[in-house]
C-alpha cells in the first residue's frame, strides 16, 4: 500500500500528510487533479467511441440501438 500511495502522490492525484492525532498514520486526500481523472477517462472513452462510430456504416451505428434495449430487458427479467 505504501508504494502505491507513494506513486500516486508523486504523480499528483493524491496528497499525503501527517495525521493530526499523531502516530504513524497519514492522511491521504484526493487532489483537484485526482478528482478530474474520472471525467478525463470518460471523455477519452467517448472520443474513441465517436471516432470508431464515424467509420461505421449507418446500419452498423443503428445496431446497438436495436440490440441493447432487448438485452437489458432480458437481464432485468432474470
Automatic annotation (TrEMBL):
SUPFAM superfamilies membership: Winged helix' DNA-binding domain
Entry's InterPro entries?
Answer: WH-like_DNA-bd_sf (IPR036388), WH_DNA-bd_sf (IPR036390)
Question: Which terms does the record give in the GO molecular function aspect?
Answer: DNA binding
Q: Tell me which UniProt keywords the record has, alphabetically.
A: DNA-binding
Ranges for the region named Disordered are: 1-78
Residue ranges under compositional bias (Basic and acidic residues)? Answer: 32-42
Entry keyword DNA-binding: yes
Q: Where does the source fall among the domains of life?
A: Bacteria
- Record flagged with keyword DNA-binding: yes
Kindly provide the name given to this protein in its UniProt entry. DNA-binding MarR family transcriptional regulator
Q: Which organism is it from?
A: Streptomyces echinatus
Amino acid at each position: 500500500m505504501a508504494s502505491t500511495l507513494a506513486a500516486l502522490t508523486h504523480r499528483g492525484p493524491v496528497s499525503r500528510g501527517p495525521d493530526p492525532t499523531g502516530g504513524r498514520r497519514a492522511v491521504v486526500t484526493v487532489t483537484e487533479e485526482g478528482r478530474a481523472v474520472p471525467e478525463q477517462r470518460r471523455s477519452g472513452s467517448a472520443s474513441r467511441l465517436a471516432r470508431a462510430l464515424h467509420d461505421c456504416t449507418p446500419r452498423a451505428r443503428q445496431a446497438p440501438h436495436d440490440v441493447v434495449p432487448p438485452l437489458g430487458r432480458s437481464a432485468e427479467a432474470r
